[in-house]
Amino acid sequence: MTRMTAADRIPNDPAKDELVARFLRVDQAGELGAVRIYQGQRAVLGKGRHGPLLAKMAEQERHHLETFDRQISERQVRPTLLSPLWHVAGFALGAGTALLGERAAMACTVAVEEAIDEHYAAQAEALGDDEAALKATIETFRAEELEHRDIGLANEAEKAPFYPVLSTAIKTGCRLAIWLSERV
To answer: What's the pTM?
Structure first.
């Protein structure tokens, strides 16, 4: 039996088109934020030993953003009105954590990617067979985000000063940004 997106919705849940629009809006915003985080980190750490690693992850995030930019355009979905805020906040988060050191920058990566993993997993679960291509894209990007998390862990993210506090603050900010970007 074919499972359709939003077929099991209850009153006041978004209809399929609005649900997909929310997904695309927030995913584009999130990838914009990720691109800017890596730009901020590279501005501080780009010449150091993590420079090539940050460049590789940044390139993947750029590809994710370009993919969601295309989807937004093709499906005529309004991007979030908060993009200018995420543009600035992403860079500030990246540069700010990098200024705290390489481990803090990696802690930022781990925290962001763990929040995005949860987010993408929920989206993939909500999409039906009628959105197989979008679901496959989200699952591919989710796997790449988990690779970034693993890179951060392998580069001593958990040894960053105040790691639990830093991680919790970043994850909370990500969850708030996701909630806002879906709606605004």
So the answer is: 0.92
